[in-house]
């Protein structure tokens, strides 16, 4: 299963990082005890040479870095699916560096980039980020991550 498939169908408006102009896709609850135990067991199963201490350290660092249940699960699945260290164990950074965000544009930015020939209008659509005005995201991101489309409020 690809990471994009794991994230499909978000049920709420993602958090909006105004400084980075990005949607933060992981807004579910912080990593809980049941999920940490399941992920710890999965790590040891997927990487038989991993010690208990390293497995716990990875989980502890996810908790310390504010991972949500979904982000932690996706991070572990991503490393299992993509790690290329044959007969070696991944390190903490392989997991902690995992995140998914969607870059969004204001109407003004979209117009400017279109006028510069850097993007096509047809590749973007308005999405609801919880503000009075929409932001514009790539259509493929809207579909892949189940982003809420902007609806004109009357």
Q: Can you tag this structure with a few keywords?
A:
single chain; 154 residues; alpha+beta; three-stranded antiparallel beta sheet; two-stranded antiparallel sheet; 7 helices
Strand fraction: 5-15%
Our count of helices gives 7
By oligomeric state, this entry counts as single chain
Provide the spatial order of strands within the biggest beta sheet: 1-2-3
Query: What is the radius of gyration computed over CA atoms, rounded to a whole number of angstroms?
Result: 18 Å
Estimate the global geometry from the Cα principal axes.
elongated
Structural class: alpha+beta
Number of strands: 5
Helices and strands, in order, run as HEEHHHHEHEEH
Task: Summarize the main sheet.
Answer: 3 strands, antiparallel
Average pLDDT, to the nearest integer? 88
**Span between N and C termini?**
40 Å
What is the helix fraction of residues, given as a range? 40-55%
Which parts are unreliable, with pLDDT below 50 for 5 consecutive residues or more? 1-9
Task: Please describe what this structure looks like.
The N and C termini lie far apart (40 Å). β4 and β5 form a beta hairpin. The protein has a three-stranded antiparallel β-sheet, with no helix packed on it. The chain is built from seven helices and five strands. With 154 residues, it is an alpha+beta fold.
